Amino acid sequence: AAINHLSILLTHRFSPPAGFQAQPEKQAMSRWRAVASRLSAPHLLSRAFSKPPPLLPQPLSRTFSKAAASAAATSHSPSAASSAGPRPEVRLNSMFLSKPSSLALPPDSPLRAEDPHYEGIKRLMLTLLLFYSKQSKSIRGANAVYHRITSHVDKPDIYEVFQLEKTFKTTFSLLVLHMWLVLRRLKEEGKDGVKFGQYIYETYNHDVELRVSKAGVNLLLTKWMKELEKIFYGNIVKYDTAISPEASQDDLVNVIWRNVYADEGSEPMDAAATPAVQALARYTRREATCLSLTDKEALFSGNFKFTTVLPTVPSPVKQPSPAQ
After folding, report:
1. What are the DSSP E strand ranges found in the chain?
2. Quick one: which of 201, 209, 154 has its CA closest to 179?
3. Is 51 exposed, middle or buried (0-12, 13-18, 19+ CB in 10 A)?
4. For 175-193, b where at least 16 C-beta lie within 10 A, e where not — what string?
5. Cα separation of 142 and 244, whole Å?
6. What ranges does the record list as Low complexity composition bias (predicted)?
7. pLDDT digit string (tens) for 12-63?
8. pTM of the predicted model, to two decimals?
9. Is there a contact between 292 and 88 (Cβ–Cβ < 8 Å)?
10. What span, in angstroms and rounded, lies between the C-alpha atoms of 51 and 154?
11. Nearest Cα to 290, choosing from 181, 199, 200, 204?
């Protein structure tokens, strides 16, 4: 198993292949239609990327409208409010404007991922099995980092706040967006960061393949995965360009609209979706800065946590009971 894992690690890199060029928008979006056509059965999509049964990929402007309407209906439902407790008010235009800060977990956080500490014969045996080798530590760290990404993307909150219906495309698009955020930060660490990013990319690639395979898509799986890989690299290039110093403030908003929300690359931005798209762009820009402020040790060990997107509701203050 270790040999197979190592061989997989050596066959993939997260940097674009030689000669890779970003595809035009229409061609890139046609890849989504090709992917969707191969996942033509609703039960396949219900088993891949989401636990609640999602709909087949549809024009995202309509999907956005459904999600927004559903969220509004839920927030105004007395039964929902009483069963789930008070829900925080989402004000998209005022979110993600606070000063960026490190995402590193504090030393006493219960969410920290720590290597087990063994002594005596156990430690000796694990040392002989290369458990404490640099490569083994990197693989464990990459798994921890990828778990941070998937646990964040899989939460219902991120779809509620950014008014997205949970479909194959939206989940995959958010996954790629957060992969890009992490890989971009790792490049700041030079060769060590690039090498560590390759471990994370392979973990991502293996996870996507497992999810699709478990959904029952076995025929043409290799070809289908290559299409997803092209979408991944295309999105990475677009995000890099949109956040570069030469880019305008609206470039990232437009790229997020096309990559996450829109069904057609040339489709104009839906006016109703604009606040949500702009909020996701602000979140992305802020999160990129927060990751740059996160130290190398926290990043390589996976001991960081993405910013919570749903505002917290302050606990109600208990009124003192009247004196008897």
Report:
1. none
2. 201
3. exposed
4. bbbbbbbbbbbbeeeeeeb
5. 26
6. 67-84
7. 444 555 555 555 555 555 565 555 555 544 444 444 444 433 333 333 344 4
8. 0.76
9. no
10. 9
11. 181
